[in-house]
């Protein structure tokens, strides 16, 4: 069992290192800047880019203004809201700070790259609902909570693979921590 956990962890780390070395996401995954006239403070629609990003998430609490501005879909108002509102303890706090600075599509695009990981065993339903996924927000939160307590990321991967592809399981693992 320990060898399979180690192999899984090494495989995941290798994927992340390869993605970072290759520049992360492709240009086809970028989205146009959000238009301020059509924005809402709702949670992002649970949709993801056609390919699941594998690069390490940007930490909104430590990222520079330039790093935040370079994120596809990020508006100037959202960058300012993040810089002025941090530090954030949860994704919900960041979402509340961004307010109307992003529309739903831009929010999903941004959250696929900028996010505060949520504890699998202690995370709140509202935080899970902000994770961009092909699953509906409510179903995703329900499935994350249903299998608590998680003893390993291998367990998380095994349980989530019942509902989504292996590619999406690896993508979802970027948004959570084993606490």
Strand content: under 5%
**C-alpha-based Rg, rounded:** 16 Å
How do the strands of the widest beta sheet line up side by side? 1-2
Q: How helical, in percent, are the residues?
A: 40-55%
Q: How far do the termini sit from each other?
A: 20 Å
Shape: globular
How would you briefly describe this protein structure?
By secondary structure, the protein is mostly helical. It has helices at 2-21, 65-69, 76-85, 91-98, 104-111, 125-128, 137-146, 153-160, 166-173; strands at residues 118-119, 176-177.
Please give a structural write-up.
The protein has one domain (34-177). It is 45% helix and 2% strand. It contains nine helices and two strands; from the N terminus they run H-H-H-H-H-E-H-H-H-H-E. It has helices at 2-21, 65-69, 76-85, 91-98, 104-111, 125-128, 137-146, 153-160, 166-173, and strands at 118-119, 176-177. A two-stranded parallel sheet has the order 1-2.
Which tags fit this structure?
179 residues; mainly alpha; two-stranded parallel ribbon; 9 helices; 45% helix; globular; disordered N terminus
Write the layout of secondary structure elements.
Blueprint: H1 2-21, H2 65-69, H3 76-85, H4 91-98, H5 104-111, E1 118-119, H6 125-128, H7 137-146, H8 153-160, H9 166-173, E2 176-177
Parallel strand pairs: 1-2
Helix pairs in contact: 8-9
């Amino acid at each position: 069992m320990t060898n399979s956990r180690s192999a899984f962890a090494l495989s995941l780390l290798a994927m992340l290192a390869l993605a970072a070395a290759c520049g992360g996401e492709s240009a086809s995954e970028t989205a146009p800047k959000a238009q301020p006239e059509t924005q809402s403070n709702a949670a992002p629609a649970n949709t993801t880019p056609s390919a699941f990003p594998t690069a390490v998430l940007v930490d909104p609490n430590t990222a520079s203004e330039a790093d935040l501005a370079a994120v596809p879909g990020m508006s100037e108002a959202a960058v300012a809201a993040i810089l002025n509102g941090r530090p954030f303890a949860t994704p919900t706090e960041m979402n509340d700070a961004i307010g109307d600075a992003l529309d739903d599509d831009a929010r999903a695009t941004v959250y696929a790259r900028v996010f505060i990981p949520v504890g699998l065993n202690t995370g709140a339903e509202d935080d899970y609902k902000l994770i961009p996924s092909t699953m509906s927000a409510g179903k995703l939160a329900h499935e994350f909570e249903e299998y608590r307590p998680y003893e390993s990321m291998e367990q998380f991967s095994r349980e989530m693979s019942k509902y989504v592809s292996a590619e999406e399981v690896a993508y979802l693992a970027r948004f959570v921590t084993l606490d």
